[in-house]
Amino acid sequence: MRRRAVYTIGLTGGIASGKSSARRLLADRFGARAVDADRLGHACYAPGHACLAQVVAAFGADNVLAAEEGADGLGLGRPLDRRKLGDIVFSDPAQLRKLNAIVWPHIRASLRDQLDVIREEVASASLSPSPSPSSSVSSGSSVSSVSSGSAASASAAPGSSSHPATTVVVV
After folding, report:
1. Is 111 helix (H, G, I), strand (E, B) or coil?
2. Report field, pTM of the whole predicted structure over 0.85
3. For the chain, where are the E strands, in sequence order?
């Protein structure tokens, strides 16, 4: 049995630019599975995540965390106050660069983990006689997820030979 190819497509654009429509089209037509980078980013800001601890260290707990006190007394159980953080980073390009330097390595690592899980699933499915459909994958974080648009095994990619392919869309 041939090994199934995995294609990764990144969709970028502003609000209402058609990313969700493109994702749905790829899911419906090719069985693409989507990894939502926004969800991965939100997971990085969860209490207890190393990324949030770095953001707190860089900007100060009182400047970026919600007012309620966490169970640990240090503020590490407090959730991020996105409005407070936004006020800091969107008024000063240097602060935004600092935040991006902290957050994006965590998002890239989570994305890499998600893609590795999908590639492993695809490799396992292409070696087994009957692939089992999967609708969600988690990289150990309870917040991040990968959703399946259609079946886990997709049809052949356009312009390719008749071997099946799996498309992963990163939005």
Report:
1. helix
2. no
3. 5-10, 33-35, 136-137, 146-148, 165-170
